[in-house]
Amino acid sequence: MKLTNLSVLTLAATFALGASTAQAVEVTGGSVGLSYSAFADDTDFNRLGLDGSVELGFSRNLGLQVDAGYNDFDASGADGHTLGLHGIYHMDQATSFGAFYTREDIEGEDADILGVEAGYEMLNWEFEGYIANVDTDLGDGTLGGLKARYEMAQGFGLTGSYDHFGSDGDDLSRFAVRLDRDVSPTTNLFLEVGSAKADVGGISDSEPFVGLGGEIAFGAGRGTTFDQRGIARLIPGL
Q1: Which pairs count as long-range contacts for 218-221, CB under 8 Å and 24+ apart, including other chains?
Q2: Which residues pair with 197 in a beta bridge?
Q3: Could you read off the pLDDT of 66-75 as tens digits, one per residue?
Q4: Burial (CB count <10 Å: 0-12, 13-18, 19+), residue 185
Q5: Residue 103 burial class via C-beta count within 10 angstroms: exposed 0-12, middle 13-18, buried 19 and up
Q6: SS3 of 150, please?
Q7: At 15, phi and psi to the nearest 5?
C-alpha cells in the first residue's frame, strides 16, 4: 500500500479514534437502497444493486459511516461486494468533510479504494465530490466524481452526476441525470438516464443507459452524509 494510501487511512482512523473518546455512540442515520440499470440498446446487459449504510455520531462534529453493497451483473454472471468506512467531520450544518476506505471484490479481483470527500448544502442545493486512489493487483488508478442535486416542489429532486475511473491509459466514465421523488417521509424513488463510456485497449465506446430504484432512509439527517464509493457502481450493465 502506498504512502498516500496510508495517510488517508490514518486520517480515517484518527476520526474514529477521536470520536471514540468524545462521548457515547449514537446512530444518527441510515439507509437501504435497491437499484437497477441497463443499457438502452440491449437490456440483457444490466446491473442489480443492493446497498445499505449506517452512520454513527460520537459528537456534534464527528461521525463514522459504514457501508455494505452487492452488485449483480446479468449477462456476464459476475457479481461484486463492497465494504466501506468513512470518517466524517461536520464543520457546520452545511459543510462536511470525510476520508474513506472501500474494499471492493468483483469476481475475485480485489481493489483498495482510499480517498477524501466533501459535501455542501445551500438553500435547495446539495453538492458532493470525492477523489480516491485505487490499488489493485493489476495496477493503480484514480477514481473521482461530482454530484449536484436541486430540491424542487412536491418532494421532487433533480440530480446531475459525473464519475470517472482511469488506470494505465484505460478510462471508464458515467454521466447521469436523475429525477427522484419522496413518496413518504422515509422512502424515495428515482428514474435516471445517462451515458457510460469505456476507453479500453485503444477501443472507445459510449452507450446510453436507463435506471430506476428506491431508498428507505431513517435518522435526523434522513440517511447518511455521503454516498457509497466503488468502481462497479459506475457500470450500468455487464
Answers
A1: 218/29, 218/30, 218/31, 218/186, 219/27, 219/28, 219/29, 219/30, 219/55, 220/28, 220/29, 221/28, 221/29, 221/55
A2: 173, 206
A3: 999 999 999 9
A4: exposed
A5: middle
A6: strand
A7: -55, -50
Using left for φ > 0, alpha for ψ between -120 and 50, and beta otherwise, residue 17 falls in alpha
Cα 56–chain centre separation: 18
Q: Which residues pair with 44 in a beta bridge?
A: none
Using a 10 angstrom Cβ sphere, with 0-12 exposed, 13-18 middle and 19 or more buried, the burial of residue 235 is buried
- Angle CA 144–139–5, to nearest 5: 60
pLDDT digits (tens, 9 = 90+) for 20-43: 444 578 999 999 999 999 999 999
| Grid cell of 154 as nine digits | 412536491
